[in-house]
User: Fold these one by one.
Assistant:
Number 1:
Amino acid sequence: MALIAVNDLSVGYGSQIVAENINFKVEAGDYLCIVGENGSGKSTLMKTLLNLQKPVKGEIIKGDGLKENEIGYLPQHTDVQKDFPASVKEIVLSGCLGRSGFKPFYTSADKKLAFENMERMGITELSGRSYRELSGGQQQRVLLARALCATRKLLLLDEPVSGLDPKVTAEMYSLIAELNKEGVSIIMISHDIGAAVGYADHILHIGGNVFFGTREEYLGSKLGRFFLMRQSRDDESMPLFKPRKKNPYSIMMSEDSGTAETEAGNASEETAAETESEKASENGVNAEQDADNGNEKKEVKDNDR
Amino acid sequence: MIDKLLFYLQYPFVRYAMIVGVLVALCSSLLGVTLVLKRFSYIGDGLSHVAFGAMAVAGVFGLSNNMIIVMPITVLSAILLLRTGQNAKIKGDAAIAMISVGALAFGYLLMNIFSTSSNLSGDVCSTLFGSTSILTLKQAEVWLCIVLSCIVVIVFILFYNRIFAVTFDENFAKATGTNAGAYNLIIAVITAVIIVLAMNLVGSLLISALVIFPALSAMKLFKNFKSVTVCSATLSVICALTGMIISILAGTPVGSTIVAADAIVFGGCCIIGALRKGN
C-alpha cells in the first residue's frame, strides 16, 4: 500500500477551487516533485496534504502505517522567524513535540534524537547559536533537522531552496537526495524544473494540465518538454524567444512541428548539463563551506571577547 | 530615605500593592515575549480597553465586585481576537483597533450617562491610569491576584515548549500533531487574565508597556527563547519594584512610574545591545 494516495482531489479555499483533478500516489522511498507555475495551487495542495486545510473534493488516503502526525514539513520562511530569538537546539527539539503526547517537558530520548539529527545535518556546532543570525542555507538545515525529529517516513518540502545562492542550493539538493537514499520519502514543491527532473523520480505537474508519472514519462510528454523549454527561456530571460501567441500552451498544440521539437530537445540537454555541473560543483561547495565555517568560528571568538 | 520606606511598608495597603505589583509584572512579562513575537504587541491595549468598557457596565449594574463581569468579557474578547487572527475577515491589527476604541467609547458613554459618582473624571482617570486603585486593594483581591498569578505561571511552565513551538511556527506544529488551536486558546485566556490583573496596577492605558517593554529589552540582550523569557521576567519584576519604591518616596503616580522605569531599562538594553554588536 502507498504512503499517500490521492484520488480526484480538488484543493482551494472555501468553495473556490485552485487546482483540481489531482491523482497521485507516493510509495515508500519515492521522491516526488510537484511543479507548476506560480499560482497553480502548489502550496495549497501542500497545505491540504498536511491537513492544514480541508480538501474541496476528493480524498487523501494515508496508508502503510503512516500516522497523521508522521509527516515532517519544511515550510517557507515566515515573517515571524526573521527576528525570532531562538537557539538552533530549541528549534530542532520542538520537532519532537508531536511524538511526546502530553508530557510537558522533553525526555532524554527526545534530546538524543535532536542531537542525532543535528549531527546528520552537520549543524552540531551551531546548536547554541541564534537562528536569526544563521545564513539561509544553515537555517534550512535547522528546519530540516526539526522535520526529521518529527518523522522518519515522509518529508514535505515547500520550495526548500528559495532565496539560496546556487552553491548552497546544490548542497541542499544533494542533502535531500541523501535522505531519500536512506529511505525517507520526499515530496518537494519547486518551480525549479531543472532540479525536479534532476533529482526526483516522480513528477506531478499541476495547473491547467495535470500530469503525474515518472521522470522519464514527464520528459517524454509534451507538457514536460514544453515546461522545461519555457523555463530555460525564462531563466535566461531572452526577449527574442518570447512566445508570440497569448496562450503559451497553444504553441505546443498548434505548432507541434520541427522547431518546437528541437527547442525542447535543446532544453532537456541544457538541464542535463545543468545537473551535471551541479554535481560537479558539489565538491567545490564542500571546500567553500569549510572556509565558511572557519569564518564563523572566528566570529564566535570575536563575540567571546 | 530607608526609614521613610520602612514607615510606609508598615501599612498593609502598601505591602499589598508591592505583592500585586510584582506578581502582575512577572506574569505579563512571561507572556509578553510570545505576544511580541506573534505580532500581537497591541493586544494588551485592546483588551484593557475592553476591560475598561466592562468595568463601566459593572458600575452601571452597581456590582461591588466587578471582576465577575470584567474577567469573562475580557477573556471572551481575547479568544475572539487571538483565535480568529488568521482566517478572520477583518485582519488582526484592524480587529484589535476596532474592539479597543469601540469598548473605550461605550465604556465612557455608559459611565457618563449612568454615573452616580460626583467625581466622574476622577473615576475615569484612575481607571485609565490606575493612579489609586492599587493602593485601595482589599485582602480578598490580593488573594485572588496571588492565586491567578500562580495559575498563570504554572500553566506557562507546563506548556512552555508547546507555546514556543506554536509561536515559532504554527503550521509546522499543527502539521506534526500539536493542537495549535488549543494552545492559542490558552495563550488568549492567560493574556486576558493578566490584563485584568494588571489594570489595578498601571491602569488600562499603560498595560501594553508591561507586556512589551520587558520582552523587547530582553530580546536586545539575549538570543535564545529561554534566556529571553527569564531575562524579561527578571527585568519586569525589578522595574516594577523600583517603580513602586520611587513612587512611594517621591509621591509620583504608581503606574506611570513603573512604565517609565521599564522604558529607561529598554533604552539601556538598546545601548548594551548596540555596543555588543559594535565589538
Note: The two ends of chain B are 40 Å apart (CA to CA).
Number 2:
Amino acid sequence: MIKLRCAAALAAGALALAACGSGAQEQPSASPGQPRTLKLWHYESADGAMGKAWDAAIKKFESTHPGVTVKFEAKGFEQIQKTASMVLNSDQAPDIMEYNKGNATAGLLSKQGLLTDLSEEAGKRGWDKLLSASLATTAKYDDRGIMGSGKWYGVPNYGEYVMVYYNKEMFEKNGVTVPTTFEEFTAALDKFAKAGITPISNAGAEYPAQQIFYQLALSKASRAWIDSYELYKGKVDFHGPEFTYAADTLADWVKKGYIAKNSAGIKAEDMAVAFMAGKFPIMVSGSWWYGRLQTQLKKFDWGTFLWPGNQFAPGSSGNIWVVPEKSANKDLAYDFIDITMSKEIQNLLGNSGGVPVAADPAAITDAKSKELIDNFNKLTSQDALAFYPDWPAPGYYDVLVAGVQSLINGSKPPAKVLDEIAQPYNDNLADLGN
Amino acid sequence: MRRYPVLAALGVLAAAMLFPFVIVTFNAFKTPAEYSSGQPLSPPHGLNLDGIITFWTRVDFGEKLWNSFMISGSVAVLAVVLSVLNAYALGIGRVRGRLSILVVFLVANTLPQEALVYPLYYLAKEAGLYDSKLAIIIIFTVIQAAFGTYLLSAVLGQFPREILEAARMDGAGRFTALWRIVVPISRPTLSVLVIFFFIWTWNEFFLPLIFLISNDNQTVPVALGVLQGEREMDATTSSASALLGIVPAVAFFLIFQRTLTRGVTVGAIK
C-alpha cells in the first residue's frame, strides 16, 4: 500500500515536470521563403453556415498560399469575451480572429490600440464597396471606440436580422394568410387569440421580447431617430411617439392574449423549441435560428416574412474579422479576409443557411436560403438595418430585459417602464460627455 | 419502524439529486431534431451517440482529459507537500506570529479569483508563463496550499508532543521527525487533502479559462465552454459534453470513496 502511494506521488511529480517542458511555444517567423503559419481563431459551430464557409476559406487559402499552414483553433464565445484584451496584449495573440462587433467589444479594443487599422486594405481590396452603409457601421470605430465612423477595425462576412417565422400549417388551419400590412398582422394575431391559440412564441427572460418591443418602436421611427438612439447623433425622447407606442402596444398585446403573460420568464432556446414543437404559429426572432430550423424542423412546413408595415428591422452585420496589432502575419490575415469576401465563399455561406453580405443572388440554389437572403438584401438596399435595442449603453441588455418583463407582467405602467429604461441610457450619454 | 420515514426521505432526496443527471443523459442520446420537436424531458427514442462523438472529436477530449489530469494531479501533490512543510513550521514548530500568518492565509483563501486575475496575468506574462500549464499549476498549488496550511496547522497543533519528544531522545532531527513521524501519522488527513485538491482543481473554470489560451493546453471544464455560442445553444451536444465532463469526477469519487468517507472522521481527532 505504501509503495503504491509513493509510486503515485512520483508519477504526479513527473507529470509536473512534463508540464514544465511544454510551456515554450515556437514563434511564427516572418522571413520570406520560410514555412509560415497563420494562427486563426473563431467561435462558430463547425456545422453552421459560417463554420462551413470558413472551413472552405481555409482550404482555399492554403491552396493559394503554398508554404503557409493555417493553425485553426475553435474557441468558445465566452472565452473570447472574457480574455480577448489579455490575449491580444500578449505574444500569444492569433494572427486573425473573429470578434464581437460593438462599442463594448471591438470598439474598446480599438481604443486600447490592440487592433490593426484596416482602412487602407478595405479601400485597396474593395471591402468598403461590398458592404452597405448599415453593415459598415459595425466595422468602423472612432477614437472613443464608438461605432459608425472613423477607421476600419473589422470586416463582417455575414449579416443578421429579425424577422417573423410562421407555421404554415397552423396559418392554413385557422384561415390566416401571410399579412402584408400591420393591420393585417394584428388581425391575424387576433384571429389566433380568438381561436384560443396564443399566437407569438416569446421569451421575456432574454433578447426576443425586447426585439419585439424595438420592432414596434421602429414602426414609428425614422433613420434619424435610429442614428440618435444607436449612434448618439441626437437626443432621444423616451416619451416620444416611438417608445410610447411600443410600450403601450406591447402591454396591450399581452392583455389581448397575443403574447402569453407567463412568457416573461422564458428563455430564447425554449421559445424556439416551443415554436418548433408546433405550440405557437409565430415566432419573432433573428436569422440565427434559420439554419437550425432548416435542418431540424421536419414536423411542419414553415416560412418567414419581414415585420409587416415596417421600413426598418432590427439587424446588423454579424461578428467581424479583426487583425490584432501584435499579429506577426498581417499580410496573410488580409489575404484571408479577402478570400472570405470572395463570391465563392460568400455563396457557400448563403447556401449553408447563413446570410452572406456579398453573395451572388443567382448562385443561391436552395429555395429557403433564397427567401432568407432576398429579405436581407431588401433591407440592406433600403439601408433599413436598425441594429439592436441593447447596443447604446454597457449593461443595457439587462435594463431592457427587466423593463420589458414588467410590461409583460403588467407590474408597472408603460410610462414608468420608459422612465426606467431612459435613466441608464442618459447616464451613459453623460459619461461619454455628449 | 422509525427507519422507513428516514429511508423515504433519503429516497426523495436521491431522486431530486439524480433528476438533472437523468435529463442530461436523456438529451445526450437524442438527435437534435428529436430534441427540437419533442419535450426536453422525454426519454430518447434510441441510442444516438452522434452528440458524444461530435463533441469528443471537436475538442479532442482525450487531450483535455490528460491536461486536466496532469494539472490536477500535480497541484494535488505539490500543494499537499507545501502545506505539510508550512504546517510543520506553524503547528509544531510554533514560529513566532503564527496566528497572524494563519490569518493572512485565511484571508488569501477568501479572495475572489476575479480580483487575482490581472496581477496574475501580468506576473505570468513577465515570467513568460502565460498560456502554459505550469502557470496554472503554480497558481493553484499556492491557492490550495493556503487552505491546506490553514487546516493542517490546526491538525498538527494537536499533535501529541510526547511522540516528538521520544523521537528527539532517539536522535531524530527535525526533518527526520517530519518525514518519519509526523507524515506517517497524519497520512489519513493528507490523503484526504490530496483528493480534495485534485477534485477542486479539476473543477476550476475561471483561471484556466484566462490562462490556458491555446486549445492544446485546455482543461475539461474550459473545453465544455466551447459549445456555448453567442445566441445558439446546441442542447444535445451540450448534454453529451456535460455527461463526458462529469464521468471522470464520478469515477474518481467511486475509486476514492473509502478514503473520502474516512476523511470526514479524521477532523475529529482522537
Note: The domain at 36-158+318-359 of chain A is CATH 3.40.190.10 (D-Maltodextrin-Binding Protein; domain 2).
Number 3:
Amino acid sequence: MNTRNRWTLSALALVAAAGVAHADVKIGFSAPLSGPVAAVGQDQYDGFMLALEARGGKLGGQPAQVLREDDQLKPELGNQIARKFVDRDKVDAIVGLGFSNVLMASLPRIVESGTVAIATNAGPSVLAGKGCVPNVFSVAWQNDGSAEAMGKYAQDTGYKRVYLMAPNYQAGKDYIGGFKRFYKGEVVDEVYTQVNQPDYSAEIAQLQAAAPDAVFVFYPGGMGVNFVKQFSQAGLSKKLPLLSAFTVDGTTLPSLRDAAVGTVSGAVWDVALTTQGNREFIDSFTTKYGRAPSAYAAVGYDAANLLDIAVRKVGGNTSDKAAFAAAVRTAGSELQSLRGPFRFNHNNLPIQNYYAFQTVSEGGRITAKLMGTPLPEHQDAYAAQCKPR
Amino acid sequence: MTFSLLLAQLLNGLQYGVLLFLLAAGLTLVFGIMSFVNLAHGSLYMLGAYAVAVVTGATGSFALGALAALATGTVVGMLLESVAVSRLYRRDHLDHVLATFGLVLFFNEVTRMIWGPQPLFVALPEGLSGTIEIFGFTYPAYRFLIIAVGLAVAVGSSWLIHRTRVGMLVRAGSVNPQMVGALGVNIRLLNAMLFALGAALAALAGAMAAPILSVQSGMGEPVLITTLVVIVIGGIGSVSGAFYAAIIVGLTDTLGRTYLPLLMREFASRDIANAAGPALASMLVYLLMAVVLAVRPQGLFPAHKG
C-alpha cells in the first residue's frame, strides 16, 4: 500500500471511527543476512517473525508489515538502508541494525528523523554514553556486558592467572577491556590475532606454554568455531578452563558439538534459562525452523514483543515520534523478556542479567547449563556519560 | 620448554605450508600454463570441505569423505573448464577475474541456499582425535595427517611433472604452448586435465582443513589471497616453487605471529607492542612478497629461465 493510499484510508478511518487512526504498523528490519555472519542475522529475523506470527501478524493490535533488508555487514549499505526506511518507506520503527559498525553508520539519518530504532545485536559504548539519543534503543545488550560477566566469573571462581585473546579490531579491544573491568587477578598475556584468521595453532602453542589458570576469548562467528575446535584438538579443553563471549553460542554450537563441552560463556540468554515463556519459545522456534534458537533469536523475539506493548501504549498512533519513543522506553519495563528481569536504563540500553553458561553433554546431547549470574540486573559502565538532552 | 615450543611452532608452520601448497599447486599450474587467473580456486576448496562434511556426516568415514571431496573437485573442475573457463583462455586477464569472481559469488550463494548460513560439523577421523606428546608438549595427532598428505602430494606431483610424459608436455606447455600445439599435442585436453587436477587438489586441501576449520559459505576467499602470495613468491607456473614458497610462507606467518609481538616488547612498551606486533605480523607475508617482487620479479623458483 503506498503512502497516499494509506493516508486516504487513515483519513477515512479517522472520520469513521471518530479520532482513532487504524494505519498499519510498518517495520523496517535490517540485519546481515548473507556472508559469514548470516546465521546471526537470520536468527534475529526468525525470532522477530516468530513473535509476530504468535500475535497473528499484529503489533499492538494493528496489522504489521515488515520490510526486510540485508546489510551484508557493510556500514555504507546500513546507512543506505536506514535512509531508505526513513525517507522512502516511512517506517514507524527500524529494528535490527546489525553489528556495531553498521549501526553507527546508520545512525545520522535515524537521529535526524527521530524515527524509533531498536538495535537487536549491538550496543556500542558511544551509543550508551556520550552519543545516547532518545529515539535509538538497544534491546540486546551493551557490548561489554558478556565480557564483564566473564571477568566477574573468573574473579569469583578464583582464577589467579588468566590469558586473554581477541581479534585485532575495536570490538576485540572492547571485550578485553570489559573483562579486565571486573577481573582483578594477573593477566598473563593479551593476544590480538588477525580478523578472520582461520588457524590458531601458533597462538594455542604459546598459550599452552604460558600455562595460565584460565583463558578468556572473544571470537565471534567462524573465528570462534576455528578457535574452539583447534583448542579442543590440542587436548587443552580438559586441562584449561575456556571462558568466552559470543564464541560458543546457538549459531556455532551445532558445528562444534563435543569440542565445546566444558567451555563457559557469558551471555544474556541460553536454552538453559527457566524464565517465563522460555520453554514455549524454544519449542515453537525449533518446530518452525528445525534448529535450536540462539540468544540472537531470543532478542529478536523480545524486540517484537516490546514493539507490541509500545504500539498498544500509543493506541496505534505512531505519528508522534517522540511520544512513540517514550512509549518504547516505558514498554521496556513491562516486557516479559525471555532473558529474565529487563528494563531500559536512561541511556536506552538494557538493565538485565548477564549469566554464565557452561556447555555440557547430557546423554549425548550437547546443551547449556546455567552456572550462575555473575552480573544480576547490571547496568553498563557508560550510562553515567549519557546526559539527557 | 622453549625448545619444544619452537618445535611445535615449526610443525605448525610446516602444516600450514603444506596446506597452502595443496591449493597453490593447482593455481600455479593453471596460471602459469594456461595464463588463466582463477579466483574460483577458493570455491573448489570450499566445495571439498562441504563434500567431506556431508559424506563423513552420512557415512561416518573420513576416508570416504576425502575421496568424495577429490571426486567433487575433479568433476566440478571438469565442468567448470568445459562450460566457462575454456571459453575464456583467449580473453584478457580482466575478463578472467570478472568471470571467476562471478563464480565465487555463485558458489558461495549456492552453498548457503543448500546448507544454510550456519557452519557445518565435521568430526575428526577416528583414531586421530587424540594428541601426541612431543618433549612434554601436546600436539594434535590429526595435524600430522595433514603434513603427511601434503608431503605425499608434493612428492607425487614432482614425479608427475619431472618423470612422466604428461609432465614433460606440461613443462613444455608452460614455456611455449603454441609450439606444443603445433607438434600435434591436444593442448585443449591437456588443459582440461590440468584444470581438473588443480581443482581436485584444492578440494583435497578443503577436505583436510575441514575438521580443524569452520566449514561455511565463503571460507575459500581468505585462504585464496595467501595462496596468490605463495605462487607469486614461488614463481608462477612452477610446482616445486609453489612447494618451497608455501613452506616459506607457512613458517614466516606462523613464526612471525608468534615471535614478532614478543620481540617488539623488548623495544617498546607492552601496549604499543600489543597494538603494533599483530598488525606487523599480519603484514609479514605481504612484505616478503613485495621484497621478492622487487628483487626477483620472476619468483624465487621460476619454472623456466629466461
Note: The mean pLDDT of chain B is 90.
Number 4:
Amino acid sequence: MTGSLSALAASAATDDHQILTLVLFSVFVAATLAVTAWAGRRRHGSAEEFYAGGRLFSPLENGFAIAGDYMSAASFLGISGLIALFGYDGLLYSVGFLVAWLLVLFLVAELVRNCGRFTLADVVAARMRRRPVRIAAGVSSVTVSVLYLVAQMVGAGSLVALLLGGTGQAARTWTVVGVGALMVFYVICGGMRATTWIQIIKAVLLMGGAIALTVLVLLRFHADPGTLLTAAAQRSGHGADFLAPGLKYGGSWTARLDFLSLGLALVLGTAGLPHILSRFYTVPTARAARRSVVWSIGLIGGFYLMTIVLGFGAAAVLGTDAVRAANPAGNTAVPLLALDLGGGPDSTGGTILFAVVAAVAFATILAVVAGITLASSASVAHDLYGALRRGGRAERGAASPERGAASREVAVARIAAACVGAVAIGLALLAQDLNVAFLVGLAFAVAASANLPVLLYALFWRRFTTRGAVWSVYGGLLPALVLVVLSPIVSGSSAAIFPGLDFQLFPLENPGLVSIPLGFLFGWLGTVTSAEAPDAAARHAETEVRALTGAGAA
Amino acid sequence: MEKHDGRPAGAVRLDAPWYDTPASGRGDQGAAGQEDGGVPAQRAAGRPDADDTEHGTVGAAAEDGPDLSWPTLPAQRADAPGEPTHADVYLTVQRSAAFQEVRRRYRSFVVPATALFLTWYLAYVIAAVTAPGLMARQVMGPLNVAMLAGLGQFVTTFVLTWAYARHARLRRDRAALDLRWETQEMTGGNIR
C-alpha cells in the first residue's frame, strides 16, 4: 500500500502536471509583472509612495493584503501536512497563528498606525533618543525579516523539487535564485503599491484554492465532519489518539516544554513581525487599520479552519503513512490530496487540481517573499541608514530634512532590497536542508522576544527610557539567537545542521519560552537603572495622545 | 518646532488622513445620530472649561456620544502672545477629561479582553501538556475535549474581534476624532 502511494507521489511529477503547473505559474508571474509595471507607472519616488503605497488603500484591500502576507506556504502546505501526520498536535499552529491576531487588533494595529510612519522603529524612537533606538529596532527587524525570508525561500526550493520532479540540486538552486530575482524586481519597481496588489491577488487565489479543496473533501465524506474525523483517526493508524494531544509533543518533558515554547512564540510573535506592522501604514487612518485587521481575521480564521479540514482530509483520504512516505515533513500532503480528489493520478481532473494547487503554492511563496523584502528594505533605509547617516544631526528632532533626503532614502531602500534579496538567496542556498516550519517558528520567536516587548513598553509604559528600549531589543534578540545556536537544531543530534559537532547546551528547539521573558525583563531592568529624561512626561503625553486620537498622524 | 521629523508641514493635507471619516458611525445609525446632533451643539455653546470633570463621567446613557469636555490650554497661554509649544499642547490634551475618558474606555475594554484571551489560550496550551488524559476525553462522536477547545479558540477569537470593533466604533471613534481635530488645531496643523 505504501508502495503504490509513493508511486502515486512519483507520478505526480509526470510531464502533464509539470507543464500545466508551469503554465499556470507563468500566468501568475505575468499578471504580477503587469501589476508591477502599472503600479510603477505613477511613481513619484516619494517615501510615502514607496514604503506605504500612498496610504490610500481601503480596509478591504488591506485586509486581503494582510491575509496574503500572513498565509505563507508554510501554513498552506506545512500546517495541513503536520495535521495529516500528527493530528491534533498539528492543530496548535492553526490556533496560535489565529489567536495572535487578537493581540495585534487590541494593542498594536491602531496605535502603531497613529504613532509611526513606516516602520516599527518609528513608534519606539518617537519617545526616545533616536539614534540608538532606531539602530536597535532596525537590526532586530532586519534579523527577523531575513529569517522569515530564508524560511520561505527554502520552502520554494524544496517545493519545486517535490512538485516539478526536479529532485536535482540544479532545479532547486535555480528556483531559489529565480524567486529571489523576481521578488527584488517587484519591490524595486513597484514598491508598496505593487506588493500590496500582488498580496491581494495571491490571497484571492489561495482562498479560492483552499475553498475548492475543502468543499471536495467534505463532499467525499457526505458533508459530515464527524465521518471525516473518524475516517482520519482510522487511516492514521493511531485511532482515537490521533485526535488527542501528545503524538508529536507528548512523552518527555523536554518535548512538552517545546510545545509550550512554540505556543508562546506563535501567539506573541505576530505582533512583532515587521512586514505585518508595515501593512498598517498603507491605510489612511487608525480606524481603517482596525477594519483591515477585522477583515484579515475573518479571512485568516476561515483559512486556518480549512487547513484543519485539509489536514484531516489528507489523513483520511491518503492515509498518514502515504503522506509520510511522499515527504517526511508532510509538505506534499495537500498537493497529493488534490490529485486524489480530482480523480486520481491519471485523470484530467486530478492533473488540473494538482497543477492549480502547485501554482497557488508558488504564488504564495513569491508574494510573501516580496512583502518581507519590502519591509526589511524599509528597515535598512529608513532606520539604519537614516540613523547612521544623519543620526547625529537628527538626534532629538533637529530641523526638518529637505525633500532630497527622502528621495535619497528611497534610492537607498531600492539598493537595500537588492542586497537583502542577495543575502536571502545566499542563506537559502546554504540552508536548503533545514526544516521550513522550524525556521518560521524561529522567526516568530525572535520577533516576540526582540520586537514585541519594546513595542508594548513604548506604547503603554510612561516611565520607559532609551536605555530600556535598547536593552529590551538586544536582551530579547541575542538570547533568542544564542539559544538557537546551542539548541539540538544546530548540533548534537542526528537531524542537526552540524550532526558531527556537539555544542548543544539548550534542550529546546524553540527559544521563546526563555527569550521572550528575557526581552521583557531587560526592558524593565534598563528602564529602572536609568534616569528619566527631563522631558519624558511630555514625550509620553505626545505618544499617548497621538496613539489614541491619531492627532498628527502621518 | 522641536519635533519636526522630516516632512513639510503641509504634507498631511495631501495624505488626507481622515479620508474615511464620513463612514464613521455607519451601521449604527441610532448612536451616530445622537452624536452628530449633540456634539456641534455643545461646541457652539462654548467650551465648558470649569466643569470638565463632571463631563468626564458619562451618565446613564453611556452608549451615546462622546465625552463633551474639550481640552483647553492653560489660561496664561491664552493671554500670552505666541504659540504654545508642542509639549504644552500634548500635556494639556493628555490631562483633559475628554482624553482621559477615551483612554479609560479603551483600557476598560482591552485590558480585561487581553487578559481573558491570553489566559484562555495559555490554559489550552498548558492543558495539552499537563492533562492529556482530560483533553482526550470523548465528548460527542469523534470530538474530544481537545478538539472542542481548539474550535472554541476560533469561536472566541471571532467573537472578541466583533466585540472590540463594535466597542471602538460606538464608544471611542467619535470622541477620538474630535480630540484629533482639537489637538491639531492647537498645534497649528503642525505635525512632527
Note: Residues 1-13, 392-401 of chain A have pLDDT under 50 and may be disordered.
